[in-house]
Design a protein that fits this description.
Elements: H1 3-8, H2 12-30, H3 37-51, H4 60-77, H5 82-113, H6 117-122, H7 124-141, H8 152-174, H9 186-245, H10 247-256, H11 259-270, H12 273-276, H13 285-300, E1 304-310, H14 319-337, E2 346-354, E3 357-365, E4 376-379, H15 389-392, H16 396-405, E5 409-415, E6 418-426, H17 432-436
Parallel strand pairs: 1-2
Antiparallel strand pairs: 2-3, 3-6, 4-5, 5-6
Helix pairs in contact: 2-3, 2-7, 3-4, 4-5, 5-8, 5-9, 8-9, 9-13, 13-14, 14-16
C-alpha cells in the first residue's frame, strides 16, 4: 500500500485537523500567537476554516467573509502591532485562498475534463494537506530571523504590496457571475491564481530584505554613536593634555590676579568641557556612547540630567539592543521634558548590575494633565493608543520587545508631574529559544 493510499483511508476529520495544524504552524512562524490555550485553540479553528474554505468563481459572500473572519482571528489571538497582524494575515490569506480557488475551480475542471472526477474526489483532502505542508516548509526555512518587527512606514509599504495580489484574487472571484459558463476562462483564471500564490514568495522575500535593512540602519546608528563618542573622548584627552601643559602658566596668572578676578579665572577654567563632561559612565562602552550622545542633546535643550550607574563590566547583550533600551527611553524622556518650562526639565537615570540582574530606572518630569497633587497610574503598554502616545512615547514598544527578548520585565508608572520607566533583564547569556521569542 502506497503512502497516498494509506493517507486516503484516514478519516476526513483527521486529515482536516492535520492540515489546519500545518497552517497554524505556518502562521506561528510569521506572527507570535498568544500563550493561553483558548487563544491557540481559537487560532487553530481559524486556520482550519481558512484551509478548507471552498472558493468558487463568482462566490462573492464566501471569499469576503472568510478573509474578514481570518483577519479577526489573527487580531484576537496573535501578538504584535495592528499593522503587522493585518499585513501578515492578508499575505497568508491571499496565498491560502488563491490555492483554494485554484484547487476548487482549475484542478476540478481539469479532473472533470479528463474523466478523473473520482480520483479528484478521493484525493481532495490529501491535496489540501499537501499544500499546507508545503507552505509550512517554505516558511519554516525562508523567513525573517527571530521575532521580527518593522517600523510603521515599512509595514504600510508591505501592506500596499500585499494589496496587489489580493486585488487580483478578488477581481477573478468577485467579477465573475456565479451563473456564467466559466469553462472558457477557467484556464486563464487558474493562471492568475498561480500568480497570486507565487507573489507570496516575492512578498516573503521583500519582508526579509526590509527587516535586514532596518537592522542594518539600527546598527549603523549605533556605529555613528560610538564614533561620536570616541571622537569626543579624544577631544577631551586633548583638552586635558593642553590644560596640564599650561598648568604652570595658569598658576602664575592666578598669583598675579586680584582676588575677585582670580575667582572668575578659576570658574572659567572649571567650565572647560574637559573637566565637566563625563564620558566613562560605566563599564559598558555602548551605554557610555549612548549616554554621552544623549547628554549632549539634553544640554542643547536645557534639560538637567543626572545619572548613577553601577555597571562595572560589559553587558552580555547585543549592542543594538542596549542602544534600543537606553536611547529610546531617553528620547521619550527628552520629548516629554520639552513640553515644560526650562526650570522644570529634569531626567534621572539609575542603572545597577548585580546578582544576575540588570535593573534600569528612568524618571523624567512631564506635564501635569490630571491637575492633582498625587496621582499614580500604572500603564500597560498593550493598551496604548495613538491618543495616549503622548504619555507612552513611540519607543516603548521597541523597549518592551527587547526586554521580552531577554526574558525580562518592564513597568511604567505615570504620576501627576513625572513619568517613571523601570525594567530589569537577567544577565545570563540568553538561550537560542529565548532569542527566537
Amino acid at each position: 500500500m502506497s503512502i497516498l493510499e494509506w493517507i486516503k483511508q484516514l478519516p476526513s476529520g483527521v486529515l482536516g485537523m492535520v492540515a489546519a495544524a500545518f497552517i497554524y504552524f505556518t502562521l506561528s512562524c510569521l506572527v507570535r500567537i498568544k500563550e493561553k490555550w483558548w487563544y491557540r485553540l481559537l487560532c487553530l479553528i481559524g486556520c482550519w476554516a481558512a484551509s478548507f474554505t471552498i472558493i468558487f468563481i463568482g462566490d462573492l459572500v464566501n471569499l469576503l467573509c472568510c478573509i474578514v473572519f481570518f483577519l479577526l482571528i489573527i487580531w484576537i489571538t496573535c501578538k504584535g502591532s495592528l499593522l503587522k497582524k493585518i499585513t501578515m494575515g492578508l499575505i497568508l490569506a491571499s496565498s491560502i485562498f488563491a490555492f483554494n480557488a485554484f484547487y476548487d475551480n482549475g484542478l476540478a475542471f481539469l479532473a472533470h475534463y479528463y474523466g478523473k472526477d473520482e480520483f479528484y474526489g478521493n484525493m481532495y483532502l490529501v491535496g489540501r494537506l499537501s499544500f499546507a505542508v508545503f507552505l509550512y516548509l517554505m516558511i519554516r526555512f525562508h523567513r525573517p530571523e527571530g521575532e521580527f518587527e518593522l517600523s510603521p512606514p515599512l509595514w504600510r509599504l508591505m501592506l500596499m504590496l500585499t494589496l496587489t495580489p489580493l486585488a487580483i484574487l478578488s477581481s477573478v472571484i468577485l467579477l465573475r457571475s456565479p451563473y456564467a459558463d466559466i469553462s472558457g476562462t477557467v484556464i486563464a483564471d487558474s493562471v492568475l491564481f498561480l500568480v497570486v500564490m507565487l507573489s507570496f514568495v516575492g512578498l516573503l522575500r521583500a519582508l526579509i530584505v526590509l527587516e535586514r535593512q532596518q537592522r542594518l540602519e539600527q546598527e549603523n546608528t549605533l556605529v555613528l554613536m560610538n564614533q561620536k563618542y570616541y571622537e569626543s573622548m579624544e577631544q577631551q584627552q586633548f583638552e586635558i593634555r593642553r590644560l596640564r601643559h599650561d598648568l604652570a602658566n595658569h598658576l602664575q596668572a592666578l598669583l598675579a590676579l586680584p582676588e575677585q578676578q582670580r575667582e572668575e579665572y578659576i570658574k572659567g577654567m572649571l567650565d572647560n568641557s574637559a573637566l565637566t563632561q563625563v564620558f566613562s559612565w560605566c563599564g559598558d562602552p555602548t551605554v557610555n556612547a549612548v549616554l554621552t550622545n544623549k547628554e549632549s542633546l539634553m544640554q542643547q535643550r536645557k534639560v538637567r540630567f543626572s545619572a548613577r550607574l553601577d555597571i562595572e563590566e560589559e553587558l552580555p547583550f547585543e549592542k543594538a539592543d542596549i542602544c534600543a533600551i537606553f536611547a529610546n527611553a531617553l528620547d521619550n524622556a527628552v520629548e516629554a521634558c520639552m513640553k515644560l518650562d526650562e526650570h522644570l526639565r529634569e531626567i534621572d537615570l539609575e542603572a545597577r548590575l548585580g546578582k544576575g540582574i540588570l535593573a534600569v530606572n528612568i524618571k523624567n518630569a512631564c506635564k501635569n494633565e490630571y491637575n492633582e497633587e498625587k496621582v499614580e497610574r500604572r500603564i500597560r503598554l498593550p493598551q496604548t493608543t495613538k491618543k495616549d502616545s503622548e504619555n507612552h512615547g513611540f519607543g516603548l514598544k521597541s523597549i518592551q520587545k527587547t526586554v521580552k527578548k531577554y526574558g525580562g520585565s518592564m513597568e511604567i508608572k505615570r504620576e501627576a508631574q513625572s513619568f517613571n520607566l523601570f525594567l530589569y533583564l537577567p544577565v545570563e547569556k540568553p538561550s537560542s529559544e529565548m532569542l527566537k521569542g
